[in-house]
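Fig. S4 source data, part A: sequence.
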Amino acid sequence: QVQLVESGGGLVQAGGSLRLSCAVSGRTFGSSVVGWFRQARGKEREFVAIIRWKYTVYAESVKGRFTISEDNAKNTVNLQMNNLNPEDTAVYYCAAGTAIQTTPAAYTYWGQGTQVTVSS
């Protein structure tokens, strides 16, 4: 079993930055694919970024602005979010799975989510 806990969300002005962290526990960190997803109010949960070792994948909407990274020693996955805009406002979730996929249904374990709000 895998446990995921997100942190780092908050309120930021448009153009600002936030750094989200996902603490992973319960199994060997390196054996899991970890992804970030987000769900805006009234919308479906959508893919943001995925990392597995050195391989990363980003959604078109965040590519060039967000950077996903992992620290195996600390069992954490981070999401650096730069040049934020109001469209980035959502609850951000950390998820773990066993294969590189961009669909939420492919992930077995999920964190509780952390709210990110971007104001104008």
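Fig. S4 source data, part B ends here. The chain has a mean pLDDT of 93.
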